[in-house]
Amino acid sequence: QGGTGFLQPFADSPLDNEDVGATMLQSVISSAQERMWIMTPYLILDDKMTTALCVAAKTGVDVRIITPAIPDKWYVHAVTRANYEELTRAGVRIYEYTPGFIHSKVYLADSVQAVVGTVNLDFRSLYLHFECGTLFYDSPAVIDLRNDDLATIEKCRKIELADCHTSFFGELLDCILRVIAPLL
Question: How far apart are CA 32 and CA 63, in angstroms?
């Protein structure tokens, strides 16, 4: 199947006032009609990204997010988990990869398009860092990415809404972490 599909490399710079990574991911999420699967080590969402993911799930898109169960930084992992309840309530399915830390940044929409690169789902990566990635469209590589996601989910623990509930102080900590999330 050589020569089929398209790929478009991109780069993002905080110096040009163009949020290429954020725009690319929001475009992929909003274009998904059947599935939007994400694998990311950091799930530190701004309002725009949270809304995009929740709207996709509420309109029937199969939104799945895979994050690591074993963090590299405890406080980033705490912020990641602070986002679980809102997303889960909207119908997003969240999985934690149990064998170890997962550092992949893969965004797959409808087995037609995907973004792979250095772009994390956190404020600094989307707006303040130099990042790069590649958009794949109608490429055989997209099917390989889908199959990798399916194999990875087999090694994950699904997060249920009951897993998101904590004590009063846990809820308070989650609120504080979401407020300071852009600083992490």
Answer: 9
